[in-house]
Amino acid sequence: MTDISTSTIVNRRITRNADRTDRKKPARLTPERLPAGWRLIGPLIILMGWEAASRLGVLSPNTLAAPSTAVRTGIDMVLDGSLPVHLAASAARAYSGLFLGVFAGVVLALLSGLTRTGEALIDGVVQIKRAVPTLALIPLVIIWLGIGEAMKIFLIFTAVLIPVYINTHAALRGIDIGHVELARTLGLSRAEFIRHVALPGALPGFFVSLRLAVALCWTALVVLELVNTQTGIGYLMNRARDWGQTDIIVVGIIIYALLGLVSDAIVRFIESRALSYRRALGS
């Protein structure tokens, strides 16, 4: 009896300990997400060090203007009306190429991802273009389209098209086969299948590609606006380089960075709304 009682007590203790372990919060393999404000600590430290080096004379204004100087210059350019004009020109080029590239990328991904004929005709061509840097096409596109706005928009378009196509095509190919079989069982038409199954299934990959496309359209624009332009942020920076105006160059860099970050934030906001159903299913 004593042995039985002792083993029973031991088993009960083991069971209680196991229950306590189960009730404990599972260990996280990755650190918890930091609040958004904390991510500004690193950039703020860099800005303060940059400003201090400029004020102490360690960093010459001829080499790099201080952040405070660049801010004052930017405000003056806004007040005299010169900056908004060039900003509007850059935004028009970037977003025209972005819109055309996203539209073409989605259409080509649908044709290639949903039909064998489309994949045979399209995928190989896109993969070849993927291996060729967009900026390497500048000499040829100048011969085709000249050095005006059409050339710049076309090159942004080609830079944006590739990531949109690749990620959307991969998402279409990764749609759950069970959903495809269900659509066949229900007798959905091709248009209904695209609307109710293909497009919703491709949305996660599409938004990943859209964030890459937004960054690429501004990256390509930085280089393209150095080629025979009379308007745009790149034109301001190129002219400032000739006159050694590092404050205007810094203003241009900050504007490119802000435009890229704001565009990415807008895409992430739309993504969170469009894919809110995934959080609801996971909860």
- Please bin the fraction of helical residues: over 70%
Low-confidence stretches: none
Major beta-sheet overview: none
Number of helical elements? 12
**CA-to-CA gap between the ends?**
49 Å
Function: Probably part of an ABC transporter complex. Probably responsible for the translocation of the substrate across the membrane.
Membrane topology: Multi-pass membrane protein
Transmembrane segments: 92-111, 131-147, 153-172, 193-221, 248-270
Domain ABC transmembrane type-1: 87-267
Task: Describe this protein with a few key phrases.
MetI-like fold; 12 helices; 283 residues; single chain; mainly alpha
What does this structure look like?
Belongs to the binding-protein-dependent transport system permease family. Its main location: membrane. Probably part of an ABC transporter complex. Probably responsible for the translocation of the substrate across the membrane. Pfam families: BPD_transp_1 (PF00528). It is a single chain. This protein is mainly α and 283 residues long. The chain has one domain (66-282): Orthogonal Bundle (MetI-like fold), CATH 1.10.3720. The protein has helices spanning 2-23, 41-55, 67-79, 82-114, 116-131, 138-145, 149-173, 177-186, 190-224, 233-243, 246-274, 276-282. The longest helix has 35 residues, at 190-224. The protein is globular. The two termini are 49 Å apart.
Write the layout of secondary structure elements.
Blueprint: H1 2-23, H2 41-55, H3 67-79, H4 82-114, H5 116-131, H6 138-145, H7 149-173, H8 177-186, H9 190-224, H10 233-243, H11 246-274, H12 276-282
Helix pairs in contact: 3-11, 4-5, 4-7, 4-9, 4-10, 6-7, 7-9, 9-11, 10-11
InterPro entries: MetI-like, MetI-like_sf
Transmembrane segments: 92-111, 131-147, 153-172, 193-221, 248-270
Function: Probably part of an ABC transporter complex. Probably responsible for the translocation of the substrate across the membrane.
